[in-house]
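Exercise: predict the fold of this chain.
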Amino acid sequence: MITIIGLGAGDLNQLPFGVYRLLMDAKHIFLRTKEHPVIRELVDEGLKYTSFDEVYQRHDSFEGVYTEIVQTLTAASKHNNIIYAVPGHPMVAERTVQLLLASNAEVEIGNGQSFLDDLFTRLRIDPIEGFQLLDATDFNPAELSLQQHIVFCQVYNSDMASNIKLPLLETLPHDYKVFIISSAGTDKEIIKKVALCELDHETTLDNLTSVYIPPAPNDLLRQKFSSLRETIRILRGPNGCPWDRKQTHQSFKKNLVEETKELLAALDEENDEHIVEELGDVLLQVMFHAQIGEEAGLFNIDDVIHGLNEKLIRRPSCVW
């Protein structure tokens, strides 16, 4: 049996008593990392353990690290019941735990306190308003929902901070305020408000550091597809533009022809600024026809995108 427990997000005072007793009584304890304030205090009380810190030095990727950890734990559990302790809560941002659950090993999830509890409290965030928890080492910038509260974990050095900063600067202004949080809820807590452009210049980053990105106001998100979709809905809505509201598929056909001709002319000119403008005008035609279809209950822009995606993927000439 592999019993997985969480070390919490801070010092020994935050560690549940049941977890403390389990750690002090266990004979075979493995730590993903010994770099945690709880471990430093427990060592003074006689804790013995095996850590995987050296495994990080042997691999060029985190996936290689996590694979070796899981293999070692699985092999060790064939001979003894073992404890595997991770920072925070076992089910929050712990890739090794997910790999263990997907393996054939016998796994039991124990207790632990997530860093999110204290972070929400200290920053006065209600996650019901919309919340994303992302791994700074591995996330898709295209999936960022900047209208929501965003927390990046594993921001342990300036490289990881830069990994966050650069894609965000493509949308948000350089002076957009973000928060660096370390050891939330402990006597070593640090909460620092900085400009986005300065995020990777900070020296307080460590393995207990997270970065909070507050929701962006709508006027900063005009380049997002969701913003365009909402604008079209407003224009066609009860309080929208009278001319836009009266258009139909048939009345709008001539606009598509005209805008396509203007795009072709811009392409011939090889004028990038003009091409961008005319592509926008052609996209407007697509969005309007999709909105008309949505209002009639027949189809919407999601159906258009889905159909296009399927067509592109299934083309015989494509190699995936």
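Check your answer against the key: The first helix runs from residue 17 to 25.
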